[in-house]
Amino acid sequence: MAIKMCETKYALIFDSDIVMIKSPVQKMVDMMEADTYGIGYLEKTAYDGFEYGAKKEHKHQNWMFMLHPFFHLLQVENYFKFYPYVHHGAPCFKAALDIHMKGLTHKIIKALPGLGHTGGKGWNWKPVPPEWVIHNTAGTRNDRRRKGKPEIELGWER
Predict the structure, then answer these.
(1) Which of 94, 97, 102, 146 is most exposed, with the fewest beta carbons within 10 Å of its own?
(2) Dihedrals φ, ψ of 25, to 5°?
(3) How far apart are CA 45 and CA 134, in angstroms?
(4) How far apart are alpha carbons 41 and 114 in whole angstroms?
């Protein structure tokens, strides 16, 4: 809903559990081109929105790069050309799949060097030293569990 209401050229999307230690926003704006969808951290993701390899069925499936939702800059006009974000732990997975199926991932999505998960370990990634943003994976999810709440309100969209 917030992206629909956005009146600026760009929208900064970020998780509630990040800590910005040095702003990369101007660098991201400088990387934008007319056709750029977004800039941030790219993660190897299965078509269901979970990190590739997180589920046994991923072994026999293809994968895509997804602009990870913990911190990225969108070009609002280009956001509306693809599937909108959804209610999910990785809300941009359907947009990533749409972009991937159109063969545009490497043309319109850019990685910001030095941006990545700073804590935890994935199937396809290792933590990076925090240059821009501190992000330990599943921070919001773990915080909700500690409070006796479900991982995500109202369940995950499939």
Answers:
(1) 146
(2) -60, -45
(3) 21
(4) 9
- What whole-number distance in Å separates Cα of residue 56 and Cα of residue 31? 37
Give 5-58 pLDDT, tens digit per residue. 999 999 999 988 899 999 999 999 999 999 999 999 999 999 999 999 999 999
Both tokens assigned to 114: 């030095």
Distance CA 126, CA 116 (A): 9
Q: How many CA atoms lie within 13 A of 127 on its CB side?
A: 11
Question: Residue 136 is which amino acid?
Answer: N
Query: What is the Cα–Cα distance from 110 to 67, expressed in whole angstroms?
Result: 8
CA 82 to each of CA 50, 85, 86, 137, 145: distance values in angstroms, whole numbers, following the listed order: 19, 9, 12, 26, 32
Beta-carbon neighbour count of residue 74 at 10 Å? 25
d(CA 32, CA 87): 27
Question: What is the helix, strand, coil percentage profile of the chain, to 5?
Answer: 25, 25, 50
